[in-house]
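[job 4417] fold queue: 2 targets
>>> target A
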Amino acid sequence: MLERILEPEVMDTEAEAMDYDAMDFQAVNLAFAQRACQLGPTKATVLDAGTGTARIPILLAQLRPAWQITAIDFARSMLAIAKENVVAAGCETQICLEFVDAKRLPYANGSFDGVIANSLCHHLPKPLDFLREVKRVLKPHGFLLIRDLIRPESPEKLAALVTAIGSDYNDQQRKLFADSLQASLTMTEVQAYLQHLGWVDDEDTDFGLHLYQSSDRHWTMEKAFQNRPIAGN
């Protein structure tokens, strides 16, 4: 198995933020936003952890006008571009941007109807700290959608995934992707975190927590909005 090599937790230079925002994630972001809408109710308070440049909250605001979204990041350069994007989209009344460490959330227990995070865990040296906070701030009946990259089994598979993104990306963007893949978790590691937290992977029900591989490079953890808590809460 390929060793996990951490990348910097915070991408906080203007160049990194601009490179990230310029990458074409529209299709995967839209699919993520649409899945979140399927899992959540029509009206909800939602936390987006590691929002980056706020592309996903903007999609959510457009798809769910009654959602109030708190979008947090620990990189001021990302939030600066996020603010520009939110204003340009006319979503200021729905999206609140905050400079917050996702491992130490300043919100009360059970503050949110839903928690989402796209490609955050691989930035964290100890993702369990973040997942523990997610469990704390999520309402017992709330919905959950967390997606991230899977660490490949070998250098060869990592190189193949980087090659597969195509030639539209510059060398810095390709390096960011390669570093992110190597910093990511395996499915086994994510499952161990769930067990540690007492969260049961209950794929046989419509509303239980479910962890699965959602593409050749992603894992997804999700739970639908419901009127009963997930097992372990």
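>>> target B
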Amino acid sequence: MLVGRFQIMASIAAHKFAQCITCHAWSPDQTMVAFCPNNNEVHIYRLVEDKWEKVHVLQKHDQIISGIDWSARSNKIVTVSHDRNSYVWNQEEAEWVPTLVILRLNRAALCVQWSPKENKFAVGSGAKTVCICYYEQENNWWVSKLIRKRHNSSVTSVAWHPNNILLATTSTDGKCRVFSTFIKGVDSRDSGTSLASDMKFGEQIVQLDLCFSWAFGVKWSPSGNTLAYVGHNSMIYFVDDVGPSPSAQDVAFRDLPLRDVLFVSERMVIGVGFDCHPMVFTADERGIWCFSRFLDERKRAPSSSKYGSQFSEAFGKLYGQSKQGVRNDAIDPTKPGGGVHENCITCIVPLRKAGDGTVTRFSTSGLDGKVVIWDLESRADLSL
């Protein structure tokens, strides 16, 4: 089930990575991991002879680093912080050199992600604003264009569509939105999708009002045909045909809310959050999504009954209905504790992808200070 589980957990215990990890990212060759130990620093560890050794400490921010992403092609690290700043780090010989990105924010920067082509990155903030940053060769600096007056509260997560132009966001106003980030001179019109063919920067494609609580993590499927995001009401939402007339489903579960999601294939999603146990959601041949199982075998759903009490049955009837009228039974799992993670999982990152975009290995980190690698190829019971 786990690749390098004992190795990584032993390294955390031996090297005392952190009491808490805010976010993490991997180098292109996956031999180094960068994370924020819930302060204003980025620690980079390298795997040397089956042991993790600290090789760099990046110090430039003044407050907690809330987001980090490591580009796979250009080997650049981008960080954002509560200090309202962003830095792009370039490795020059043995040192990492920071370049300040002017975000023009008056509130904390909360999340960041490189675009698929890595010519842009998006920053969500507590200023109800999304910054789309790109590099200007003429002036030799990073600049940002802002998407303003679209969100009513903090932007908690951003996710790039595979076409490099569409961007999905979630917010504590309970909504998920999709925008165009087309920038003349940076993007081309041959994006391969009609949604991105004739749109201006910052144009809103759709606003999804499915969640009536804070909305957190959001992700696109490998093909970009399906969008998934989670809410603080212990529900996960799936949206197909994103555009003027989208079709949506929701799945309710009895466990604690999720914080982030990851498509491992077109029909399988991993959700992580406050429950500390990764959850697997799958879609059948009809495209109907439902909870499948916990990835951590230490936590199992009982097979004796669907519900543990009359209250839970009523809960399932009330919240287990999808927007298309399909029933998604709430699960009543046992809670033995002692799983791989011992506190809230806040970050899930893909590690290995197949040619079709299927994720076969990913990592999670959380408030327990652990980084855990999960390998789906070794799970015969999980079909991608």
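[job 4417] complete. Note on B: Residues 5-15 form the longest helix (11 residues).
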